[in-house]
UniProtKB/TrEMBL annotation:
Residues 1-25 form the signal peptide. Residues 393-625 form the Sulfatase-modifying factor enzyme-like domain. It comes from Aliidiomarina sedimenti. The keyword Signal applies. The lineage of its organism: Bacteria, Pseudomonadati, Pseudomonadota, Gammaproteobacteria, Alteromonadales. Residues 34-146 form a coiled coil. Gene3D superfamilies: paralog of FGE (formylglycine-generating enzyme). Transmembrane segments: none annotated. Residues 310-369 form the PEGA domain. Keywords: Coiled coil, Signal. PANTHER family: FORMYLGLYCINE-GENERATING ENZYME, SULFATASE MODIFYING FACTOR 1, 2. It holds the Pfam family PEGA. This is Sulfatase modifying factor 1.
């Protein structure tokens, strides 16, 4: 019963109001500083290191007790043999005493008494060591649960740190500043005095803007990091106002002006992610109103060409944007376009296209709504067995046989299992999605089954990175608003096995839980990346903390919310951890991550070893059926 540290794990970023979603993390809530978060991370890392040391000490204790127990058990037969021999000797001496009353039997009696004492001591030692071993194993289980909570909490604060770093750059870059600048020009012969003065004033403001931009980067706390990628971003400088300190002509045509210019920097969150080399999910859909292109009210240098800031968004990711036949990449997309009309097409395979004629005469945002078409899956037979009373069992899809590399293929986390080869020799029918509350309810009503949590083990919840037992929640009331098509949680490994056995009995087919290698084979669907769609979690692709969904950190999402993998399976990333049987036949293993676990801990290789009676409102299961 090992609860391994995992890539798992997690988690959860606990659903804090401050960081409930990436889109709202910087809006309308009290900011937590980078230094505060780094301090928390340091504290958690220290706690985690302590738990690792405690784990090693505990494992050493367990090994010592196991060895002593084994020695005591091996000694049991020897001391019992000595007791029987002493008894036989004493009986022989008693028979001699009957024939000869003067026979001395004291030595035989003492030998037997000592043999009995030795046997009793050995029995007592075996009993005490067995109790000590059970106690240490129970402590180890509690320690492992705390350990995966700490790993989850660490991942949480690392997510928060990324967000806070973005917010810090936005704040620092957006600070206002006064710049003094002197500009001298030589007036052209055909210029009027007023035109020459205006040109000098404009050039001075442009110089002030360039100087301000340089100083804005230098002032950043992470200036060294940001300057590496300065050429990849397009920050803006807003002219708030200017005041001439002195000006005048020298000689015949030389004019100089000394200005004090008030300026403010503006940069999009998307550009901040580029500066800090962060995943764009920390910045998606968070362009602030303050970053909107200023209107022609004199705030920008008057000799600039009129270019309008155009932001293009859509309701899907990995799409393609074409403007007048030219490809511009994927949304969200920010462009600077001259006044005019443009043909905009936003498309993605498997969705309807969005076609519109844009009339660009000011800064604007265009939102494209793409509707899903029939999803193009790999061929697979759909199976759904009846369980009686006009109820249907889980929907399954047949995945093909084949070979696949499993484990930590992309070196994602030290908690991921090592890379290994796996072969599925025959096709296997796998649940399209985890067993739902509705489906589990049919089983309970048919059998009167009572889950482990309802029998007194209690269902666990994750609160601020700590796993806590809550006796008041069950699979029907798991601590969040439920829908029938949400995956069932608060079920233990034993509960999941009982459900699979019930399906077998009701349908006459062999249902069971997948082995963890079968589960990963199905989840990868022929890929070798962290997620079936690639190495980045993206946004809105799955239900995990800070994955860009409205359920993130709060609850599981209903079935059918996200795209299926190439084998036709849903929610193999996030939503709820899924019970599987360990490949080596030891402790059951949960796979896939959950709604309240961090993206780095819901990779397809992530795993969480648990004891079989454990249940939580972030752990469910799906079933497979053998042919």
């Amino acid at each position: 019963m090992r609860l391994a540290q995992t890539s798992i794990i997690i988690a959860a970023l606990f659903a804090s109001p401050l960081f409930s979603t990436l889109a709202s993390a910087s809006e309308g809530s009290e900011q937590v500083t980078v230094a505060e978060i780094e301090s928390q991370i340091s504290t958690i890392e220290s706690q985690y290191q302590s738990t690792q040391e405690e784990r090693r000490e505990m494992e050493a204790q367990l090994n010592s007790v196991r060895e002593r127990l084994e020695q005591a058990r091996q000694q049991s037969e020897a001391v019992e043999q000595e007791r029987r021999q002493a008894l036989e000797q004493m009986n022989r001496r008693y028979r001699e005493l009957v024939d000869n009353p003067e026979t001395d039997i004291s030595e035989a009696q003492q030998a037997y008494q000592q043999a009995v004492v030795n046997a009793q001591r050995n029995t007592q030692q075996v009993s005490e060591l067995s109790a000590e071993l059970s106690n240490l194993q129970a402590q180890q289980e509690r320690h492992r649960v705390r350990e995966h909570g700490l790993v989850n909490q660490l991942a949480t604060y690392q997510e928060r740190l990324a967000l806070a770093r973005v917010d810090r750059v936005i704040t620092e870059f957006g600070a206002t500043s006064q710049v003094r600048v002197e500009q001298e020009v030589t007036c052209d012969r055909d210029e009027t005095i007023g035109q020459c003065e205006s040109r000098a004033d404009l050039l001075a403001k442009q110089r002030a803007s360039r100087n301000f931009l340089d100083s804005a980067f230098d002032r950043l706390t992470e200036s060294e990091q940001a300057l590496k990628h300065r050429d990849q971003v397009s920050p803006d400088v807003r002219l708030i106002g200017s005041r001439p300190l002195n000006s005048g002509f020298s000689g015949q045509r030389n004019y100089s002006v000394n200005l004090q210019v008030d300026l403010q920097g503006r940069i999009t969150r998307t550009d901040v992610c580029k500066l800090l080399e962060l995943d764009v999910r920390y910045c998606t859909d968070n362009l602030q109103a303050s970053n909107e292109e200023a209107s022609d009210d004199g705030k920008k240098p008057s000799d600039e060409d009129v270019m309008h800031r155009v932001l293009i968004r859509s309701n899907v990711y990995d799409d393609q944007v074409m403007i007048n036949g030219e490809r511009y990449g994927s949304t969200p997309l920010e462009l600077m376009l001259e006044t005019g009309e443009y043909d905009l097409i936003v498309s993605r395979r498997g969705y309807t296209s969005h076609n519109v004629r844009m009339n660009v005469d000011r800064s604007a945002t265009y939102s494209a709504e793409l509707d899903r078409l029939a999803y193009d899956f790999s061929p697979g037979e759909i199976i759904q067995d009846s369980v009686g009373n006009r109820n249907e069992g889980p929907s399954l899809i047949v995945i093909p046989s084949g070979s696949q590399r499993l484990g930590n293929i992309r070196s994602g986390s030290s908690g991921d299992p090592q890379v290994r080869n796996f072969e599925l020799s025959v096709p296997l029918a796998v649940g399209v999605f985890p067993v739902t509350i509705e489906q589990f309810g049919v089983f309970v009503r048919d059998t009167g089954y009572v889950t482990s949590a309802e029998q007194g083990d209690a269902c666990n919840v994750m609160i601020d990175g700590m796993v806590q037992a809550d006796p008041n929640i069950t699979w029907e009331e798991p601590g969040y608003a439920v829908q029938e098509r949400m995956p069932v949680t608060c079920v233990s490994y034993g509960d999941a096995q009982r459900y699979a056995a019930w399906l077998t009995q009701k349908t006459g087919e062999r249902y069971r839980l997948a082995s963890e290698d079968e589960w990963e084979y199905a989840a990868r669907a022929g890929t070798d990346t962290h997620y079936w769609w690639g190495n980045g979690i993206g946004s809105g692709r799955a239900n995990c903390f800070s994955c860009g969904t409205r359920w993130a950190g709060d609850s599981p999402s209903p079935m059918g919310t996200f795209a299926k993998n190439p084998f036709g399976l849903e929610d193999t990333v996030g939503n709820v951890w899924e019970w599987t049987s360990a490949t080596d036949g030891s402790s059951p293993v949960a796979r896939g991550g959950a709604y309240n676990f961090a993206p780095s801990l819901v990779r397809v290789s992530s795993r969480m070893e648990l004891y079989s009676s454990f249940s939580a409102n972030y752990v469910g299961f799906r079933v497979v059926r053998e042919e």
